[in-house]
Amino acid sequence: MNWQEIITLLEQGEGQSVEFEKQIPSTEDLARDVVAFANSGGGKIVLGIDDKNKHLIGIDIDPLEFKNMIKEIITNHCTPQISYEVEVIDRNPKKIAIINILEGDEKPYKTDDICYIRDVSESRPAKEEEEKLITNPWGGKGLNKRQLRALLHIQEHGNITNREYREAFGVSHKTAHIELTMLADKKIVKSEGLGRSTRYVLPPN
């Protein structure tokens, strides 16, 4: 991420997918925001900027130590594991950090056994019905991310074929066949048709 992109985020202001922090927040606050973004489409936590006054404050960090600290917090305080990226930008003599949280496939994500979601510019506990809405019904079944995303594709489009699986995830025909067959063997999906016309659908409730 370059400085101009940071300026653009600052101009847009804090919101559904961006959180600004002047300094490094507490472990509890950071874990809460990370979980909320993972449950709510992903987002960025930008550290070292006062978004209210549009000031670059900077944070005093060693990039490697900072990345290790973030890894420890996310690994030990967020469940299931969340995908993220950390970037440290030098703006001499100051540094800012961006934690990019990717949307998760195994919702709900929690910290201290509480599910948080993003609500405009706030990370708050999800209501019971909100948590049910975001819960992935296939979590805990030993599926990889491609398979979980394929199931979401089936939910949206009605079915998926081997070719669509290959094109969506950049895998070979053999890998697509193995992973789709695994879903069928677990009775998570059922196959219809034969040969190249085989498609995979969700079984009736």
From TrEMBL:
Gene3D superfamilies to which the protein is assigned, alphabetical: Schlafen, AAA domain (3.30.950.30), Winged helix-like DNA-binding domain superfamily/Winged helix DNA-binding domain (1.10.10.10)
Species in which this protein is naturally found: candidate division WOR-1 bacterium RIFOXYB2_FULL_37_13
InterPro entries recorded: Schlafen_AlbA_2_dom, Schlafen_AlbA_2_dom_sf, WH-like_DNA-bd_sf, WH_DNA-bd_sf
Record-given protein name: Schlafen AlbA-2 domain-containing protein
Pfam families: SLFN_AlbA_2
Schlafen AlbA-2 domain boundaries: 14-126
